[in-house]
Amino acid sequence: MGSSNGQRLGITEPISLAGPTDDDLMRTRKLEKYLRDVNLYESQEEAVSREEVLGRLDQIVKIWVKKISRAKGLNDQLLQEANAKIFTFGSYRLGVHGPGADIDTLCVGPRHATREEDFFGELHQMLTEMPEVTELHPVPDAHVPVMKFKFSGVSIDLLYARLSLWVIPEDLDISQDSILQNADEQTVRSLNGCRVTDQILRLVPKIQNFRTTLRCMRFWAKRRGVYSNVAGFLGGINWALLVARICQLYPNAVPSMLVSRFFRVYTQWRWPNPVLLCAIEEGSLGLQVWDPRRNPKDKYHLMPIITPAYPCMNSSYNVSTSTLRIMMDEFQRGHEICEAMEKNEADVDWDTLFEPFTFFEAYKNYLRIDISAENADDLRNWKGWVESRLRQLTLKIERHTYNMLQCHPHPGDFSDKSKPLYCSYFMGLQRKQGVPVGEGEQFDIRLTVKEFKQAVSMYTLRKPGMQISVAHVTRRNLPNFVFPGGVRPSRPSKGTWDSRRALERKVSSHTKPGADDGRKRKQTDDNVDTHLRNAKCHATMPSSSGEFREGSPIVSTISSSSINLQFEHMDANELVGSNREKVENNLTDSIRDSRNSVEVSSHNGKVDGPMIGDPRNKGLSFNSSNSKDAEKLAIEKIMSGSSSSALSPNGGLGELEVLSADLITSIASSITSSG
Prior knowledge:
Elements lengths: L21 H16 L6 H28 L4 H6 L3 E5 H5 L8 E7 L5 H14 L4 E7 L6 E6 L2 E9 L22 H19 L3 H17 L12 H14 L5 H14 L52 H22 L7 H4 L5 H4 L2 E8 L3 H25 L4 E5 L12 E10 L14 H11 L10 E8 L22 H14 L7 H22 L37 H17 L13 E2 L2 E2 L14 H21 L5 H21 L2
Parallel strand pairs: 2-5
Antiparallel strand pairs: 1-2, 3-4, 4-5, 6-8, 6-9, 7-8, 10-11
């Protein structure tokens, strides 16, 4: 079924076994050229340099483990055999890293080499004394403890796994579940990166097509501002899992086809149905795996993307209501552009897909979070801590405003060159689309921000000079340093896909319905006109004394005075506004409609022709005119069937129905209770 050994990959049959057409091959060549032109591939010289750094790092950890073994008085035989080993994972191991990217590495050590004293103590000290090591930054309290540094200019993230073995063999196979025996939680998490990466490579049919498609999707996600696990979007491993699943469903497709199918499938995906590459194994070690039937907190995950190595976990638990809405909007945009490319529409090409999201044109209101420190090392530590907590601010605002105030966190930080020990983060804010605006209605988020600042201030390594402030700014008063080159654009971007679609929606909303459009169309347009009038009236209301003042701190670092926050309603010409409303409604509908999902057991869905399914089912056929309808049904079956086969190891549809009901009820009740 597209794999090298002829076996099916994934927990369902493929959607299509079709190969590329001449047009698909041409679009793939153009895509590959585009990726080369934007410098996504490292040079041979840099590749050799990375290999040398990894070899040197492996030598260092071997010296380190012998040194601590000697200090702990191990016998001569254990001292002679003492060993540690370096593994790689993430983008480097997957083969999709670019120039200047960091290398995710794992040091595997024996039972007598502890994490606290030996790894973050002795090894850290050894690295400190090496001239080729710079910017050394240990993070022992992280969910996955890590040491970050540069070695001869190459960025390294180094994790540590302490095994129960006295001796680490040079040919150690960490893919075996037995490697987790008696391992602590930090070791299990640290090993998970390598084990997941290797399992992904085993579960995709054609690795080179997977790599090219993943390079494309990573670049797209960064350009569109949705690449950041810590900000509540998706990180590298999440995108890899999503792309790998598409490769399983279309095993003979080339990269241009896989990109198009990526958007086609995930635009239709009804979250919180999980994305899985293989069945979830219970294992024999008693480690907790993702299972909403047994683990209450798993029921509240909005966008489950499950790792394929034991213990299977949800890799995307950081996703919030707001960030899911934004990503679904971006999937819809990508789907529309890919369809336009396949129809050979003029002025639509790969450049269109990769247009950067104009974050600072998309909203009228922003939260600005400023942090500062007294020296570069303190700022680096402070930034790492604050970035890990920013997602909590998004969640608190959503919860405390009952999801009426929506947040769009920018995944990066910004620096003012005139203030070297200072950086800023921004969140776009808007009222929930489609909700009537009450006169004088305000959002009071003083306590929300106060709670956030208190949580940030609990940083155990906080030093004097580590400061944080939160303020509201409107679009017109954004600082110049957030714009490319430090120059504010004189007018909004024109000629982009987003601006053209916004203009089309504006024109469409003002077009009078024709006589043959019927009463329903007229009612829709009347509603849009009313929406525009209400928005305009609200925008011209005089400011009340309690309205948020421009640039004022919400909770001042100096004064305890507090200010209410009021936002104008978004007008119809606001970029991506009405499309976000449509996607948001689709999200709500998908949660409701999931109760009526296609019921199919894990053994259904035999391939007949290019599409999954039995053509006898309600007249389903596979001719070209009906292929997309059939494909849509196939995706429905996969969402139902994949859950059945993955989470019901004993088979039977009844257990699937219970699982789906539990998932949907919990998510629906969560949304209802939050407004």
